[in-house]
Amino acid sequence: MKLFASLADAACVRELRLELPAGSTGHALKAELARLYPALGRLAAGSVLAINRAYSGDGTVLVEGDEVALIPPVSGGGSRVWLTGEPLDARRVEEAVASERAGALVTFQGVVRGVTAGRQTRYLEYEAYSEMALERLEAVRREAEERWAGVEVAVAHRTGRLEVGEASVVISVASPHRRAGLEAAAYVIDRIKETAPIWKREVWTDGSEWVMGQTPR
Q1: Could you tell me the pTM of the whole model?
Q2: Average pLDDT over residues 162-169
């Protein structure tokens, strides 16, 4: 398998060969990597699998001969921030912050609703100024961790076309106690809406419109 950027630096290797039991999944592969290379730790949990040059979920069953790569977050984001055109995996976002120190794990998902103000939604389109959006998501994540002691935050946001029921944003907060986790999650989604250059176009059965929210600041 192949490792890149921060993952390769942490493991001090860019290519390696792993032998796993038949029927093993991406979850098992990441666990074995963490066992062999403890320095990878959460970097591996927060990275995306590519199997035979296609992005794949951690639950994908691996087959002998698969070419597997572990893709760290894209440049401009932090180790717990993602901006992607692929469907969001809430479990992966949670894994980026979960730890034995946390007494609470709070996850918020914003999803595409089927009806808005009495109008039937066909789908949504999200557009972002990607480089700046990643910087703002990372800044908001750090703000929350500074405001609530012991809290760890991960954020993933979608771009592109989203169908009804799909998640547009996933925020996971691990904290010593539930109140801090709940407050931090609410803070993060509010600040994302206030500051991140990410725009939403609602497409209905009878028209469409870019939603005008707050002026970013």
Answers
A1: 0.66
A2: 97
Residue 217: pLDDT band (50, 70, 90) is low
pLDDT mean across residues, the chain:
89
pLDDT at 121 over 80: yes
Cβ atoms of 50 and 72 closer than 8 Å:
no
CATH superfamily of 74-217: Molybdopterin biosynthesis MoaE subunit (3.90.1170.40)
Please list, residue by residue across 56-85, b when 16 or more beta carbons sit within 10 angstroms of its beta carbon and e when fewer do: bbbebebeeeeebbbebbeeebbbbbbbbe
Looking at domain 1-72, what is its CATH homologous superfamily?
Answer: Beta-grasp domain (3.10.20.30)
Angle, nearest 10°, between helix axes 130-147 and 178-195?
A: 150
Residue 95 structure tokens = 């894994």
Q: Which amino acid is at 82?
A: W
